[in-house]
Queue: 2 jobs
Job 1
Amino acid sequence: MRHPKSVELLNRAIQEEETALHQYMYFHFVLDDMGYEGLANIFKRIAIEEMKHVEAFAERILFLGGEVELGKLAKPVEKIREPIEMLKWAMASESEAIELYSKWAVEVIKERDIGTEQLFKKVAMDEERHYEIFEREFFNLQKFGDQYLAQQAMERSRRIGSQPLGGEEK
Ligand code: FE
Ligand code: FE
């Protein structure tokens, strides 16, 4: 196995990603159940991107000849049902990931593992984009309050109401 330190950090990154993935899926289900389609879809799409991060980190571990540790969460899924609290969780999680991956990029380059360094940098940039998306939603929700979510629920009702009967809801 090459670069054991990198393999260890990549496995820790997988834990971070899996934690975010599960929590965002939870937010997606709950928001969708409340009818807040726009925000629910944002969490779903970003959860899919976190899954792709798991995949990219796993591929790198296998390339280095290491073993992938899957199914471990850094912390249990929190049963948060307030949209504003969900966005706070997401922003904190993305900031933490940006911080960790930036730190780890520096650590692995000390071992001259440029491939893993590149990967940490690339994923950190994705997390910056995620942060920006969540921050915009957070500001919108603060600015427009419940109106912002009510609008999303109305759009969903209008869309479902215009579909033929007996069709798939989603
Ligand atoms: Fe990620
Ligand atoms: Fe992210």
Note: The chain has a mean pLDDT of 95.
Job 2
Amino acid sequence: GKPIVAVVGRPNVGKSTFFNKIAGRRIAIVEDEPGVTRDRIYTEVEWLNHKFTLIDTGGIEPESEEIIPAQMRRQAELAIETANVIVFLVDGREGLISSDREIADMLRKSKKPVLLVLNKVDTKEQSPHYFDFYELGIGDPIEISSALGLGIGDLLDEVVKNF
Ligand code: GDP
Ligand code: MG
């Protein structure tokens, strides 16, 4: 079947905004309140003659924190299991925090190709936190602004290279 690309990351990094930008319409709910995506949400995408399914997920939090209900966490884990490529979104304005590290550990264990994506980089300038993210051991961070639509094409080029 078609490759599956899952968008994962802690709440509020902009997963649903990113998903909607690629879908070209508002399917996923974007909220300032963390953790609003309750189910996995799908859209079909075509890029450079590659067809794939994109999945938005609810945020993943460390198991010790009870912010995200277990069911939502499970949905995200299922998406990771199903995915062929994972887009791991982090917040380029806030910088690296411990939940990013915990998710990175989960993703490394999955052995799936992971693209590390700094979202909310709304200017042409590099995020001041850019180099901190190398600590995650997931390679070169890719900078985008989902809100403004910056860097999305270059990211999709990288996504389809992993099929
Ligand atoms: P999710 O919880 O990861 O799905 O995050 P959402 O897509 O709901 O976005 C959380 C908040 O971040 C919302 O207020 C968005 O408008 C905002 N946001 C998302 N992407 C960007 C971006 O590229 N730049 C800026 N400045 N804000 C963004
Ligand atoms: Mg969301």
Note: The chain has four helices and six strands.
